[in-house]
Write a structure and sequence with these properties.
This protein is an alpha+beta fold. It is built from two helices and six strands.
């Protein structure tokens, strides 16, 4: 009955334990960057679907991992690096993404939540109100469907 809450708490607690992540939010994509008190990097996730398959419930989440773009007012001295932290943001956010997906793939947990499938992470650049950079991907997490007994 509470499989959904277990999966949501699993995702939230993983990112809470990551020292690079400072804010975790959930909801529709339009809500990613509306709170002025957000501290970056930020993880935002939204459930997009659920399916019941033999012995499992599979929830699909879209996960954004984002950091704020800082643009220096100094003249550009390096045409490759420019005058911002775009590459730093992509690097930090990819490290958070990689750690999450690798842990899901390799580490068991008490709730038997497992990585069912994931999409290829896609870069996000200069998006939302605060001009955020990072990565977005979909992840499907499965949990045993053992909370319902079927009467004979």
């Amino acid at each position: 009955m509470n499989s959904f809450y277990k999966v949501v708490e699993f995702i939230k607690s993983h990112f809470e334990s990551d020292s690079f992540v400072h804010t975790i939010t959930h909801g529709v994509v339009e809500d990613i960057d509306v709170d002025k008190k957000n501290i970056f990097p930020l993880v935002h996730f939204q459930v997009t679907s659920a399916q019941i398959v033999e012995g499992l419930i599979v929830f699909t989440f879209q996960i954004h991992i984002l950091d704020i773009r800082n643009i220096s007012k100094k003249p550009i001295t390096d045409k490759f690096l420019k005058n911002d932290n775009e590459l730093d943001n992509l690097n930090t956010c990819f490290a958070i993404t990689n750690k999450f997906l690798t842990k899901l793939r390799l580490q068991r947990n008490a709730e038997d939540i497992e990585l069912f499938a994931n999409s290829t992470p896609t870069p996000v650049e200069f998006q939302f109100t605060n001009l955020l950079d990072g990565w977005v991907f979909d992840v499907q997490l499965s949990i045993p469907n053992n909370n319902i007994e079927v009467c004979s």
